[in-house]
């Protein structure tokens, strides 16, 4: 007679137990151990033998037998981890909650935000413990980011207009993202920089001598990433009109021109309106107020700043302008168009969630 092994206790589930086990088994990220144990019990309750369950779930027969027996004896409570010997936790849930609430809802005396030292002094916990609590709850009191919500009454319409140009540009047309990086300073460091060495970053003096400023006018082609640029010492409507004339000369005559600009007064000056009326192929699209993030040329300016201007050392405006011209020329030899992916609906939904979180709207 073949051996049948030790008879196993019957494993039957109530409807409530099955529902709870199914919920636990679906956990994709957290409590993976509990999810596996739940799957073991569900499979065993279906009449599958331990060997088949182990093969199906990628575990050992001993593991299947352990959690089957634990469930039969203790039901759902049996799937929890057993209490292990050792020093009991010295930090209570109430202490953790107190630190989190204080971090979010208060500030220390004579300071704008909490530091680990100040919170440790307030709570009686160690600085390393405060750091671990903040890390667990993704709290960073030392960091702050700037923002300003647009108050433009035509915000929605302008977002749809500009995002529409990015995602579905018109045929026989060029879309240019236009702005000026004004007051670019020619700065000469007071002493030569010390070069980078192994274990030591490059060092530059904090003080410098100003040698004047220039303004970089740029029109970023959203299709191919090329840039039409111009440098002017002043930043007025007359300079902007000269820049428009340069765009007009460089864009083929058979293309209409769509310009995305911010609301700076120079772009809406009566002389500009007169020039546009004489050049009907030009169409202006203004971004919402306080919404420079929607203008792609701002990303181009960020590259100029990081690659050239942030560590520049120029003894004259002429030297600065020469370097900027060389940098833009190199960019146009290997242009990098930016890929816009967000639809207007996604942007508006995201802003709606931000407003709800920061103002408590809807609560």
Describe the structure.
- With 363 residues, the chain is of the alpha/beta class.
- It has three domains: 15-79; 93-136; 162-352, Ribonuclease H-like superfamily/Ribonuclease H (Nucleotidyltransferase, domain 5, 2-Layer Sandwich).
- Helices cover 44% and strands 13% of the residues.
- It has 13 helices and five strands.
- It has helices at residues 15-25, 32-45, 50-57, 61-74, 93-105, 116-123, 127-136, 155-167, 237-250, 270-278, 297-309, 317-333, 344-359, and strands at 173-189, 208-221, 227-232, 256-261, 282-286.
- A five-stranded mixed β-sheet has the order 3-2-1-4-5.
- Helix 8 crosses helix 13.
- The longest helix has 17 residues, at 317-333.
- The protein starts with 14 loop residues before the first helix and ends with a helix.
- The model has no long low-confidence stretch (mean pLDDT 82).
């Amino acid at each position: 007679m073949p051996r049948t092994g030790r008879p196993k206790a019957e494993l039957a589930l109530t409807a409530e137990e099955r529902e709870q086990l199914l919920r636990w088994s679906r956990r994709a990220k957290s409590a993976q151990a509990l999810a596996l144990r739940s799957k073991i019990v569900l499979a065993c309750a279906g009449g599958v033998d331990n060997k088949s369950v182990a093969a199906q779930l990628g575990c050992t027969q001993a593991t299947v037998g352990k959690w089957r027996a634990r469930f039969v004896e203790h039901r759902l409570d049996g799937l929890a981890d057993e209490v292990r010997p050792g020093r009991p936790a010295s930090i209570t849930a109430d202490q953790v909650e107190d630190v989190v609430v204080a971090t979010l809802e208060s500030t220390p005396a004579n300071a704008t935000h909490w530091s680990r030292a100040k919170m440790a002094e307030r709570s009686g916990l160690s600085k390393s413990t405060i750091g671990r609590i903040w890390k667990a709850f993704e709290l960073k009191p030392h960091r702050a980011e700037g923002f300003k919500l647009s108050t433009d009454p035509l915000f929605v319409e302008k977002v749809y207009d500009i995002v529409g140009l990015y995602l579905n540009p018109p045929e026989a047309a060029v879309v240019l993202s236009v702005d000026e990086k004004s007051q670019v300073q020619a700065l000469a460091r007071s002493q030569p920089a010390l070069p980078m060495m192994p274990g030591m970053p490059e060092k530059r003096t904090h003080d410098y001598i100003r040698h004047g400023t220039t303004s970089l006018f740029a029109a970023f082609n959203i299709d191919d990433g090329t840039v039409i640029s111009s440098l002017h010492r002043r930043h007025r409507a007359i300079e902007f009109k000269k820049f428009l004339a340069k765009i007009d000369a460089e864009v083929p005559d058979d293309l209409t021109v769509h310009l995305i600009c911010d609301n700076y007064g120079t772009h809406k000056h009566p002389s500009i309106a007169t020039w546009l009326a004489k050049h009907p192929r030009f169409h202006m699209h203004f971004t919402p107020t306080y919404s420079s993030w929607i203008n792609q040329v701002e990303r181009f300016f960020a590259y100029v700043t990081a690659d050239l201007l942030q560590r520049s050392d120029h003894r004259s405006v002429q030297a600065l302008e020469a370097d900027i011209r060389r940098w833009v020329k190199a960019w146009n030899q290997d242009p990098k168009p930016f890929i816009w992916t967000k639809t207007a609906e996604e942007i508006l939904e995201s802003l709606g969630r931000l407003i709800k979180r920061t103002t408590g709207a809807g609560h």
